[in-house]
């Protein structure tokens, strides 16, 4: 029977993982072979990604995958968080560690960009939600730096990893769409934007689409990982959210239902899969994004702060206690805490930077006239209630702005493991929630590789059909009515 073992490299803001996904014509098996923490590092004033550490994690994972398969892999695909990139010189060498999107250097750059390209024109051209760290702002900040004169290439994180693995350079389209330099109608660089900002799109290597070949593992990579060549690297939806949406097990529960999705990890990305972008002024004001997806789709969604709020609380408490708090105990206590006692706006930009999150949440509560949490369980409850409320609002707004009803909500990503969050999301939205898979991005990554190598055929529906068997999905029916959520929303947003 035809089949293949694919390595899906999925680099998230909180951890990187290499998954071994075995795909056959009508089956799929997922095995985590390596997971490593992604720990940013501050050097001097700047917050960086530890890119050598991440690349080492990728090599370790590929070696481990090969140990299981006897050195053979049918393909390797790489996806990661969006917007960030490395700057390369004329020799193809990296000019410093990639800067983290949570670094403070973008302060003031949005105003500089707006001065040459007003926000309404920028949105009409790119359809991208304003986030202070979009690549467009990062490049504007980098241009003021001393290294800029040596920059010959800009490579997004998954493309950079693929470049080191293969020696070949490309820019994968789904992730390129998060630069805010792409026109979602032509699915190519927006000349209007690159001209206005005087950014040469030629700095980015040529565009690739998911499924395109991206080279083969170099001989020294084969030697280092113990793999047997040739091993093709395949462009996938290299924006992790693009791959995660491929990994949404749509129709697992009966056909024809219109779905909304929430990809929850460090961020919560809540919205719809569309065939055309929505570029209206109303959409811009509602801060909706049109990111490009696999097979010509558009991810129409709002980017919400996500479990970063919880991760950063845990980091603060760990520093206080000298030991990591027990997450399942905290979640159980949060489940018993008073519902909707206080909520904050999960889009609040004051929560983006690293630092004392419990204190900032308390401050955000006070600013909004909400009672500040009195203990950790209340802080966690506030975070989860606030996220569920933001999910409700994003899906309702997406449905209204795109003229698209939603019958079922799929929650994928690490947050699908958080039962309380899924239950609260079902309640808040007043819709059934199907939770899982937690590793949707790795699955979507592998499915696109499997199709590119001819192991499976068909469109997204056929790829997703493979997800239906054997995945542990959890169901949460809406209970309790949405009225308390409507009132909380009114408190927060008027
Ligand atoms: P990213 O890809 O952005 O690094 P993930 O999709 O891996 O994020 O999700 C990580 C988050 O998932 C964690 O911060 C945590 O909040 C949540 N999570 C993972 N496992 C569990 C679990 N067993 N119970 C509750 N939450 C979990
Ligand atoms: C999620 C994600 C999200 C981006 C953010 C920077 O991992 O890719 O879609 O907005 O990271």
TrEMBL record:
<keyword id="KW-1015">Disulfide bond</keyword>
<dbReference type="GO" id="GO:0005524">
    <property type="term" value="F:ATP binding"/>
</dbReference>
<feature type="domain" description="Carbohydrate kinase FGGY C-terminal">
    <location>
        <begin position="261"/>
        <end position="452"/>
    </location>
</feature>
<feature type="compositionally biased region" description="Basic and acidic residues">
    <location>
        <begin position="474"/>
        <end position="494"/>
    </location>
</feature>
<comment type="similarity">
    <text>Belongs to the FGGY kinase family.</text>
</comment>
<dbReference type="InterPro" id="IPR013449">
    <property type="entry name" value="Rhamnulokinase"/>
</dbReference>
<protein>
    <submittedName>
        <fullName>Rhamnulokinase</fullName>
    </submittedName>
</protein>
<keyword id="KW-0067">ATP-binding</keyword>
<dbReference type="InterPro" id="IPR043129">
    <property type="entry name" value="ATPase_NBD"/>
</dbReference>
<keyword id="KW-0418">Kinase</keyword>
<dbReference type="GO" id="GO:0008993">
    <property type="term" value="F:rhamnulokinase activity"/>
</dbReference>
<feature type="region of interest" description="Disordered">
    <location>
        <begin position="473"/>
        <end position="494"/>
    </location>
</feature>
<dbReference type="GO" id="GO:0019301">
    <property type="term" value="P:rhamnose catabolic process"/>
</dbReference>
<dbReference type="InterPro" id="IPR018485">
    <property type="entry name" value="FGGY_C"/>
</dbReference>
<keyword id="KW-0684">Rhamnose metabolism</keyword>
<keyword id="KW-0547">Nucleotide-binding</keyword>
<keyword id="KW-0808">Transferase</keyword>
<dbReference type="Pfam" id="PF00370">
    <property type="entry name" value="FGGY_N"/>
</dbReference>
<dbReference type="GO" id="GO:0006071">
    <property type="term" value="P:glycerol metabolic process"/>
</dbReference>
<dbReference type="GO" id="GO:0005829">
    <property type="term" value="C:cytosol"/>
</dbReference>
<dbReference type="GO" id="GO:0004370">
    <property type="term" value="F:glycerol kinase activity"/>
</dbReference>
<dbReference type="Pfam" id="PF02782">
    <property type="entry name" value="FGGY_C"/>
</dbReference>
<feature type="domain" description="Carbohydrate kinase FGGY N-terminal">
    <location>
        <begin position="49"/>
        <end position="247"/>
    </location>
</feature>
<dbReference type="InterPro" id="IPR018484">
    <property type="entry name" value="FGGY_N"/>
</dbReference>
């Amino acid at each position: 029977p035809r089949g293949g073992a694919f390595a899906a490299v999925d680099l998230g803001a909180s951890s990187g993982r290499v998954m071994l996904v075995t795909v056959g014509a009508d089956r799929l098996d997922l095995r985590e072979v390596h997971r490593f923490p992604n720990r940013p590092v501050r050097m001097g004033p700047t917050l960086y990604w530890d890119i050598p550490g991440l690349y080492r994690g990728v090599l370790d994972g590929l070696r481990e995958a090969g140990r299981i398969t006897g050195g053979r892999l049918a393909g390797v695909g790489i996806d990661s968080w969006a917007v960030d990139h490395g700057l390369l010189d004329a020799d193809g060498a990296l000019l410093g560690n990639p800067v983290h999107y949570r670094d403070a250097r973008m302060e003031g750059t949005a105003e500089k960009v707006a001065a040459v390209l007003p926000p309404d024109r920028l949105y009409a051209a790119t359809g991208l939600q304003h986030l202070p760290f979009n690549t467009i702002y990062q490049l504007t900040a980098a241009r003021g730096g001393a290294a800029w004169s040596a920059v010959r290439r800009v490579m997004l994180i998954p493309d950079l990893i693929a470049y080191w693995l293969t020696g070949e350079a490309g820019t994968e389209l789904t992730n390129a769409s998060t630069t805010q330099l792409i026109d979602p109608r032509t699915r190519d660089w927006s000349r209007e934007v690159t001209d206005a900002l005087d950014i040469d799109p030629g700095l980015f290597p040529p565009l690739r689409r998911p499924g395109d070949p991206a080279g083969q593992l170099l001989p020294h990579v084969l030697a280092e990982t113990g793999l047997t060549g040739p091993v093709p690297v395949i462009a996938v939806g290299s924006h992790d959210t693009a791959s995660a949406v491929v990994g949404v097990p749509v129709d697992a529960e009966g056909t024809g239902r219109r779905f909304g999705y929430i990809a929850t990890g460090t961020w919560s990305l809540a919205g719809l899969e569309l065939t055309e972008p929505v570029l209206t002024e109303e959409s811009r004001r509602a801060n909706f994004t049109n990111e490009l997806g696999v097979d010509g789709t558009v991810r129409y969604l709002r980017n919400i702060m996500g479990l970063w709020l919880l991760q950063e609380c845990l980091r603060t408490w760990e520093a206080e206690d000298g030991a990591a708090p027990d997450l399942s105990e905290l979640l159980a206590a949060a489940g018993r805490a008073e519902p909707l006692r206080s909520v904050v706006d999960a889009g609040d930009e004051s929560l983006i930077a690293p630092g004392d999150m419990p204190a900032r949440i308390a401050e955000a509560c006070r600013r909004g006239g909400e009672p500040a949490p009195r203990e950790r369980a209340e802080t966690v409850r506030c975070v989860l209630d606030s996220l569920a409320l933001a999910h409700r609002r994003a899906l309702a707004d997406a449905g209204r702005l795109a003229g698209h009803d939603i019958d079922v909500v799929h929650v994928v990503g690490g947050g699908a493991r958080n039962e309380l969050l899924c239950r609260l999301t079902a309640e808040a939205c007043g819709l059934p929630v199907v939770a899982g898979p937690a590793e949707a991005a790795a699955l979507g990554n592998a499915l696109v590789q499997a199709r590119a190598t001819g192991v499976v055929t068909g469109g997204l529906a056929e790829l997703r059909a493979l997800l239906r068997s054997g995945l542990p999905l959890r169901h949460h029916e809406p209970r309790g009515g949405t009225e308390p959520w409507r009132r909380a929303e009114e408190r927060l947003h008027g």
